[in-house]
Amino acid sequence: MSFSIWGTEQEAKPLSSSIQSLVSKVVGNTTPRPAPAQADVRITDSQLTADHVQELQAIVGDKFVSCDRAHRIPRARGKSYFDLLDWRVDQIIDVPDAVVAPASNDEVFDVLQWASKSNVAVVPFGGGTSVVGGITPLRGTFPAVISLDLTRFDAIEDVDPISGEATLGAGMSGPQAEIALAKHGLQLGHFPQSFPYATIGGFAATRSSGQNSAGYGRFDEMVASMEVVTPKGIMTVGNAAPASAAGPDMKEIFLGSEGAFGIITKVRLKVHPIPEAKAYEAFVFPDFQSGVAAVRAVEQHKTGPTVIRLSDEIESATNLTSTDAIGEQDAAAPHGCLCLTMYEGTRAHVTSRHEETRDLLLSMGATSLGEAPVRKWEKGRFGAPVLRDALLDAGVLCETFETATNWSNVPALKKAITAAVTQALGEGDSVALVLCHVSHVYANGCSLYFTILGAQDSTPIEQWRHAKQRILEAITEHNGTITHHHAVGTDHARFMEQEIGPLGLGALRAIKAYLDPEGVLNPGKLLP
Amino acid sequence: MSFSIWGTEQEAKPLSSSIQSLVSKVVGNTTPRPAPAQADVRITDSQLTADHVQELQAIVGDKFVSCDRAHRIPRARGKSYFDLLDWRVDQIIDVPDAVVAPASNDEVFDVLQWASKSNVAVVPFGGGTSVVGGITPLRGTFPAVISLDLTRFDAIEDVDPISGEATLGAGMSGPQAEIALAKHGLQLGHFPQSFPYATIGGFAATRSSGQNSAGYGRFDEMVASMEVVTPKGIMTVGNAAPASAAGPDMKEIFLGSEGAFGIITKVRLKVHPIPEAKAYEAFVFPDFQSGVAAVRAVEQHKTGPTVIRLSDEIESATNLTSTDAIGEQDAAAPHGCLCLTMYEGTRAHVTSRHEETRDLLLSMGATSLGEAPVRKWEKGRFGAPVLRDALLDAGVLCETFETATNWSNVPALKKAITAAVTQALGEGDSVALVLCHVSHVYANGCSLYFTILGAQDSTPIEQWRHAKQRILEAITEHNGTITHHHAVGTDHARFMEQEIGPLGLGALRAIKAYLDPEGVLNPGKLLP
């Protein structure tokens, strides 16, 4: 990925006329705010000494320690609105003092030992797709910080097609993992929007959730065990049993730990045969309330779709599920809330699940729209972040965030968040467009995924910081979680105590103090 | 429950002639080893002072502190073979020094504060059904130990039928919980063999798994959040969201914690409407291998049974799935491995899941046996422990244990365990009957549940201690878990380091040191 946008330079494309027209309607005139060329970015000097560099080279090899601008800049920020704005605002960017890429658990362990001894903070780096400040190179109380790049953990090992398990290197990207598994006729089925770039280790460290979660579960549910390297030693968390009653589930302590306790280097995953058949059908509901009731019934009766999503009225009207056609008015499309469903498995499975889901949705007020809207969504489903790059270049405020809550609390939470955004961004002259969809469903609740479009003011970082604070206050006051699948990172860290309580935070800090006695791992993130 | 047997005196019944005949064939002549009358049991004197008792009474009320034999004896042991033998061998039994029954989180907190200050260990008590020494009143380094009885946490609160959640007191038994939920048209669907007596808090503290786990999941999957009282304060673990990426999942740290970190007082559970329809069908496979392949396919293709179980050849031939008919020869029954299936849900759901499962099983070598064997099993499914009481009275060695592993490892693990049992119990003159079934299935593996029948030697506790050691060694050497759903307790504690590694154990001890600084909670169990 390019340092200052979501994807590569090749993926970038200009705003379509329909989006331009939407933007000008909502936001009015904007002042372009392009990213600088990488050569023009001003960065902090490396704080590592020549001795430091030599010591690191002795561990991982000369080639795999770099203090070059070209390596440090792309590992300085993730892809949140804050991150992307940082490059676009004239300032000196704090970047890691070096990039270090070990290739084995022993090398990672030696690097962590070195860091603990040398007073250097360590920030792990996978695909760099964090949208919550997860890779910002915070130094904490340490004079220096290195970016620990997992890219060389790129192998697939120990494929067990009988049990449906395979061990993948933490540095493998989504596509790398799927290609390696496909050679064995297997699939993981984890497709978050970050899929093209994000890594297996990152999915585990952040409790990622993908678009097929109704069928295959969240990423944390896919993990059988993990190898984790801590400053105290190398661990395997989780064992060969599919379930155990031998105490707390150790792997749950490291899932979502965001590099605070150790570095996830290998992940043993539950995989499954590439599905034999697929089916698609879109529906429309007269309003969000009836749509939510129906997708809730689907999940509570386990009718079995692989994908089920529901957009609210504004998101449906904006045509946001198709990145190529956002803002287009489709005269033929009925008013209401768009619901997309997909089914995967054996032919018999797909047929029965599709029929059962369809019957239930139709009985609860849905009208079928056929296959087309789902296929359109499937084709463009990784495209939204690329679109955001173009909007940011144009000087538009554009960000997403997400939460989750119980079904009974969905209306209250959605209302509170929408009010918080509208109020926070409406305090100046701007008006915000707040789009929302149900992206993941559970028997007892669902996630709510918000997309915000608005006008940037003259201090866009402060503007969004203020809005984000109001949003998080609304979420915690109204029984949402501060993050359903984006993780905590830097952006949500100050709300962790409200999320898990002071004793919860204390218990996590006790684990950290044991496994990372010097506190070099990811200071200032997850456990502030 | 009576102190020295599984159930009540009323439930007890003599061995049927078919079981007597099976026993005499396998075990030969036995010497009866009846339990003593409660009045004849010799116990340790209470080590609490009058001041201690007064201080406890000031917290929970005069009525709810007892040093009476009648209260202390039934809280001294669980229901493992070791536990039941303890009463039957002439010795002084260590019993808790008092039974204390607080009624609120604040009272529990005050009791824990008092215990920490007064150097008194605390062992929580729910239904007393532990089969792994979970309630043995170990004192650790403390001069005294109290049994903290959760019986007064018996209320249902905050029922949310929209989200399918309800909060239950940790002291409610399985039937109490189902009756309370049924008033709201809801059901939990957790039916372990301990169901009649075990409690909601115990299910959570031990990661229990019930017979309907294929449909409703393990108990740990049913938990949305919990209230936990620790010596450091009162916590809620888990929040109102169905899933979260805000760090490690805090409730997973307390599920399976067996009272080592705190006392679980209330559990918010995922519940569901009482199913509208049920279907039953039994099958027989020519051998265990083909049966295992078929139940694996069912789970990996998610055809959707609520119950699926598979007995091996010996268990099938022994007719163990029907406690009334064990040992009976049924001339009409085909040879092979019995597989029981049940389906619950809406009528449409039951029909499609039954059909899909049936088609798959038949295509993989099954022959249908119709409904009858499943209905017979359902009727008698909580009866086996009562049968064991009669076998123990008759002087027969009878115990169950369980493990779990990946599908690909099932044959090797089953063989190793069977060899370990046979060898350990065959070293003297006795021969053991080793029965096994697959009781819980997952996409990547299954549990193996063993029942052992054999001849007791003259020192039955040492005899089983030796066999149990060999079994646990075989399990850990062959990639099984030391416990799939019975928990760790006293019996498995010395294998915890092998199960989760020294760093895993260290991390859990770090949590304990933070939440229970004096270490008064359940010393010598889970974290030895």
TrEMBL record, chains A, B:
<dbReference type="GO" id="GO:0071949">
    <property type="term" value="F:FAD binding"/>
</dbReference>
<feature type="site" description="Important for enzyme activity">
    <location>
        <position position="309"/>
    </location>
</feature>
<feature type="active site" description="Proton donor/acceptor">
    <location>
        <position position="449"/>
    </location>
</feature>
<keyword id="KW-0560">Oxidoreductase</keyword>
<feature type="binding site">
    <location>
        <begin position="258"/>
        <end position="264"/>
    </location>
    <ligand>
        <name>FAD</name>
    </ligand>
</feature>
<dbReference type="Pfam" id="PF02913">
    <property type="entry name" value="FAD-oxidase_C"/>
</dbReference>
<dbReference type="InterPro" id="IPR006094">
    <property type="entry name" value="Oxid_FAD_bind_N"/>
</dbReference>
<dbReference type="InterPro" id="IPR025650">
    <property type="entry name" value="Alkyl-DHAP_Synthase"/>
</dbReference>
<dbReference type="InterPro" id="IPR016171">
    <property type="entry name" value="Vanillyl_alc_oxidase_C-sub2"/>
</dbReference>
<feature type="domain" description="FAD-binding PCMH-type">
    <location>
        <begin position="92"/>
        <end position="274"/>
    </location>
</feature>
<feature type="binding site">
    <location>
        <begin position="206"/>
        <end position="209"/>
    </location>
    <ligand>
        <name>FAD</name>
    </ligand>
</feature>
<dbReference type="InterPro" id="IPR016167">
    <property type="entry name" value="FAD-bd_PCMH_sub1"/>
</dbReference>
<dbReference type="InterPro" id="IPR016169">
    <property type="entry name" value="FAD-bd_PCMH_sub2"/>
</dbReference>
<dbReference type="InterPro" id="IPR016166">
    <property type="entry name" value="FAD-bd_PCMH"/>
</dbReference>
<dbReference type="InterPro" id="IPR036318">
    <property type="entry name" value="FAD-bd_PCMH-like_sf"/>
</dbReference>
<dbReference type="GO" id="GO:0008609">
    <property type="term" value="F:alkylglycerone-phosphate synthase activity"/>
</dbReference>
<dbReference type="InterPro" id="IPR004113">
    <property type="entry name" value="FAD-bd_oxidored_4_C"/>
</dbReference>
<comment type="similarity">
    <text>Belongs to the FAD-binding oxidoreductase/transferase type 4 family.</text>
</comment>
<feature type="binding site">
    <location>
        <begin position="124"/>
        <end position="130"/>
    </location>
    <ligand>
        <name>FAD</name>
    </ligand>
</feature>
<feature type="binding site">
    <location>
        <position position="388"/>
    </location>
    <ligand>
        <name>substrate</name>
    </ligand>
</feature>
<protein>
    <submittedName>
        <fullName>Putative FAD-linked oxidoreductase</fullName>
        <ecNumber>1.-.-.-</ecNumber>
    </submittedName>
</protein>
<keyword id="KW-0285">Flavoprotein</keyword>
<keyword id="KW-0274">FAD</keyword>
<dbReference type="GO" id="GO:0008610">
    <property type="term" value="P:lipid biosynthetic process"/>
</dbReference>
<dbReference type="InterPro" id="IPR016164">
    <property type="entry name" value="FAD-linked_Oxase-like_C"/>
</dbReference>
<dbReference type="GO" id="GO:0016491">
    <property type="term" value="F:oxidoreductase activity"/>
</dbReference>
<dbReference type="Pfam" id="PF01565">
    <property type="entry name" value="FAD_binding_4"/>
</dbReference>
